[in-house]
C-alpha cells in the first residue's frame, strides 16, 4: 500500500522505530526495534511516496487481499533507462475449507 508523506501518521510506537538505508541510501526503511517488523519505507523510485506494511495498520490484515503482486527487489526501476518495474510473482491467499 502506498501513501503520500502528508497523509501518513504514526499513532503509536514511533519511539520504537529504527531506520535503515540500503545500498544507494535513498530509500528509508523503518523497522520496529522490538519485533523487527518492517513498518514502512520512503521509496527510492519515488521519494514522495511511502510504502506501508498493511499488517501494521489497525483494522487491516494481509489476508484481506486475495492477491498481492510481488516486485523483483534485485532489478530496481531506477537502475534501468526505461524505469521498468519487474514482477517476481503473485502471492495469493486461499482460505482453508470451513476455516
TrEMBL record:
Any matching Pfam family: GFA
Family according to the record: Belongs to the Gfa family.
UniProt key word Methyltransferase: no
Listed InterPro entries: CENP-V-like, CENP-V/GFA, Mss4-like_sf
CENP-V/GFA domain residues: 1-79
Keywords annotated in UniProt: Metal-binding, Zinc
Protein name (database record): GFA family protein
Keyword Protein transport tagged: no
